[in-house]
Amino acid sequence: MAEHTPLFMIENLHAGIEGKEILRGVNLVIERGEIHALMGPNGSGKSTLAYVIAGHPNYEVYEGRILYKGENVLELPADERARMGMFLAFQYPTAIPGVTMANFLRLAVNAVRKARSGEDKALTPREFRRLLREKLEMLRIDETFASRYLNEGFSGGEKKRAEILQMAMLEPEFAVLDETDSGLDIDALRTVADGVNQLFNPNMALLVITHYQRILNYLRPHYVHVMLDGKITISGGPELAEELEQKGYDWVKTQHVGTAS
Amino acid sequence: MATPEVELKRLGSEYAEKYGFRDPEQYVFKARKGLDREVVEQISWIKNEPDWMREFRLRALEYFLRRPMPTWGADLSELNFDEIVYYIKPTERQGTSWDELPEHIRRTFDRLGIPEAERKFLAGVGAQYESEVVYHSLREELTRLGVIFVDMDTAVREYPQLVKQYFGTIIPPNDNKFAALNSAVWSGGSFVYVPEGVRVEVPLQAYFRINAENVGQFERTLIIVEPGAYVHYVEGCTAPIYSAASLHSAVVEIIVKEGARCRYTTIQNWSKNVYNLVTKRAAAYRDATMEWVDGNLGSKVTMKYPAVWLMEPGARGEVLSVAFAGDGQHQDAGGKMVHVAPYTSSQIISKSISKGTGRASYRGLVKVHRGAHHVRANVVCDALLLDEQSRTDTYPYMEIEEEQVSIGHEATVSKVAEEQLFYLQSRGLTEAEAMSMIVNGFIEPITKELPLEYAVELNRLIALEMEGSVG
Ligand SMILES: Nc1ncnc2c1ncn2[C@@H]1O[C@H](COP(=O)(O)OP(=O)(O)OP(=O)(O)O)[C@@H](O)[C@H]1O
Ligand SMILES: [Mg+2]
Q: What are the start-end ranges of the H helices in chain A?
């Protein structure tokens, strides 16, 4: 059988910030068509991992590789990774005053499309509006949203929806959703999860960071990983999330100390 | 809500290519370098002016020579008045169609997109090249309504009564050193007269182009808005890039009569070798509104504080100012509101951006004369720093001689947050694009006041500043 390249792969990743090591040897392989959940206690390094994957310039990588479509992306700036089809839905999205959602999305969509189609395939304003309307409807977001300033004065839940709206517009092949479920009310959670499911296709993959079983009931991950203290300590199927919900992280700690990696 | 579309993608060139190109110098007359009585008399003679104007110029020259250089504000120590050519006549006559212009001048304005803008969204256009206005037009229906839009030299000849009545009354020649300089050697500029009750709904635009090296451009603009009338006047300006300094020193006087409204928009985009030292002042009478929208992007040094004198109750003044100081630039800009009468109101909103060694200063004055009670004045100045090196400062002067007034003042300084840049970059925008977007968002409260075309232009110019200079 020919050598196979997974869509996304992390090898022995050590990374941190301001000289402080937070990720201590993360390994992960994600294939197209897969949904992976990443769980773990507060401060265990999940968002750090998400930032390092996305290319946050403040984080330092001490060791290891992140391969996307077989290419080590660690040397690439965040915008190039995005243009290659990577996406991060932020746990805490940043507000950009004075920039409307619509203007921002139009530029972002065109930047990403252009790079990925390899030619200047900017959407016409009309095509863009149609696409935007379609995605707003899918996520049941009011149209007035488009003329609001990016994340400014958005409620917690609105911010999370706006992240998924961006994902819907940018159509990434690999997306990390960092606690997109927290802050959403019960109905919003269902809408957003339905939206993600609609966006999902066998050609892409998702890494869903969450603390709760609920979103996983909708998204149905193929694998669940638990991060403890900067390492993925245990991995399993969907049943692992249920077990965690019942038993808590202490159970993982006692069960698996020193056995992973 | 129609915020301007940021057309970053269209950008592919730097200032040099887009605006900084130069034509070979061709002219029918060029004064010698330096300034004295002879040069002033020569200018007046070439223009075949009436005596009163020649005397006005000569008096102003005396003021200019006597006054010391201002030592406050920006550094003007490198500005050498002896090295400047004060008058260049580029062509024998003015055109009313672009075809009448000499080939090289027409090409310049074509390249700057002026004829195209005229066709698309302007009611009238004046185009000045070096010292003279070479092209002028006004839509016929406005001419029929009695609107006058001509260059200042023509106005002196054809409307002597009006000119004599107002010229130099709002900004007297001895107001400051540069107003004196302009009064001595002025040439070109616009004369606008809007008769009572006439509303000019589409903007009039003047475009100022310096082409030769080491020259000064000293246009003089006078706008008279009769009771109940409205006009929006827009000026744009560019120049080639030279190592030697050029000087642009304009005077703009505006009279806004009872219930009238005037808006004056500037998109200043001089190349970075130009000293831009401009005096702009308006007098607003009963229930009149004067709005200055002032965008300063180019130039080496700009000193400009558009002013409104609020002369009668109900008068309203507004300055919306955006200044962008890139490497090596100093933008010393702001606004002045002088409340002479009670029940007048004013607002100054200033947004400045500094990058690299650029320095943006806000300098403003709110003055309330004794007896001007029930005045409301508000000043907001926000500064955005793009990096560690850049610098901003604020000089908000208040001279309040009356008790019953309401004066507000807010100032903020902020830095572009790394988190904002990362967020936008994580969506595929380059660092330069992300930076432009943040800056354009920062000035959005002002760009949303502009007609779409100018808002797009302003955003585009800012993107141009970011391009190739980040990272
Ligand atoms: N900029 C920073 N400077 C210093 N320490 C940081 C920084 N960012 C993160 N950390 C530390 O790194 C550790 C991991 O943080 P991270 O945000 O990755 O956790 P998390 O697993 O996402 O937690 P949560 O579930 O609460 O979102 C924490 O101890 C945190 O305090
Ligand atoms: Mg987190």
A: 46-54, 78-83, 101-117, 125-138, 156-170, 186-199, 213-219, 239-247, 249-256
